[in-house]
């Protein structure tokens, strides 16, 4: 597919998509044109959503959050949000926005793009009350789970971390950090290559990968490489994971100097980094389904709602909508909220046409104003 783009890439410092950038102009400026709507199996795809969508900011749920990163919705509608730099988890009342720090995660060593990042609830949360977190320590990135006991005093409600997976490479940049349980109830983790590009193609390394494991951190049944948690490889820095209604896995990935990517992830496939950035990698590499100039995106979290992938942009300071027809975009991606709220870190589906959106102005690369950072309540179509 031919990419249609309106904004030029900027020269990036230190080989990493810079996360600054000012307000964007109105209108879509990126990504792939409409494509065929066949699914990977060749079966007919469901009806596509409208080519043009809409976003309404219904309200600001809460504000004054320090370096928010991960977000998880509790069964009662409240939210848990992690602070990357403070290493704390805060509960947000889903109606009033009131904030309560439930505890700190021991061992978090924030620096650069590392710290306390992704959050996920156990598939059996109703009975086990386990919260999973991806975080940076002095020696590595790792995934751990903690018992959340609401009966204990505020600030002391998190149990000691039980490490599920350790040894994910850490760096000043490119630590990945998103975790999510899939429809198969397996735990997926998005990692970065820490700026050491060769890790992405090394199937023995956990860096530059999407990992799939059991809730206990063991290689999940059916993984493509025997005895390994590696699910896909050749990634630079994945920070967005979400599944569509047909249980397809989508991932957002930072590019370097040229192209940010939205990928349809399949087991055992090679997504090209550092041999290729964006489309045109040739045999052996999987092309992204959509791509953006790095000035327009620098994507972090993604969610699926109303038949579209919604992608939060850091440097791009906008929310992208990618309507889907099966395994392909059905229309050009469309940008919303350009420059209105600054850098956007995390987006989470909240049922039906609702999304939660987390801003990211206090992470050291934004220009925070009064009230930053915020969680916004959105309605989309």
Q: What's the Cα radius of gyration?
A: 19 Å
Principal-axes geometry comes out as globular
Order of helices and strands: EEEEEEHEEEEEEEEEEEEEEEEEEE
Coarse structural class: mainly beta
Structure summary, number of beta strands: 25
State the low-pLDDT regions, or none: 1-45
N- to C-terminal distance:
25 Å
Report helical residue fraction.
under 10%
Count of helix runs: 1
What is the mean pLDDT?
Answer: 90
Question: What portion of residues belong to β-strands?
Answer: 35-45%
Largest sheet: 5 strands, antiparallel
Could you explain how this protein is built, in words?
- This protein is mainly beta and 381 residues long.
- The strands form six sheets. Strands 18, 19, 20, 21 and 22 form a five-stranded antiparallel sheet that branches.
List the helices and strands and how they pair.
Blueprint: E1 55-62, E2 68-73, E3 79-83, E4 88-92, E5 99-104, E6 116-121, H1 125-128, E7 130-136, E8 141-147, E9 162-168, E10 179-181, E11 187-190, E12 209-213, E13 230-233, E14 238-243, E15 249-253, E16 259-265, E17 290-293, E18 299-305, E19 308-313, E20 319-325, E21 328-329, E22 334-336, E23 344-349, E24 354-359, E25 375-380
Antiparallel strand pairs: 1-25, 2-3, 3-4, 4-5, 6-7, 7-8, 8-9, 10-11, 11-12, 12-13, 14-15, 15-16, 16-17, 18-19, 19-20, 20-21, 20-22, 23-24, 24-25
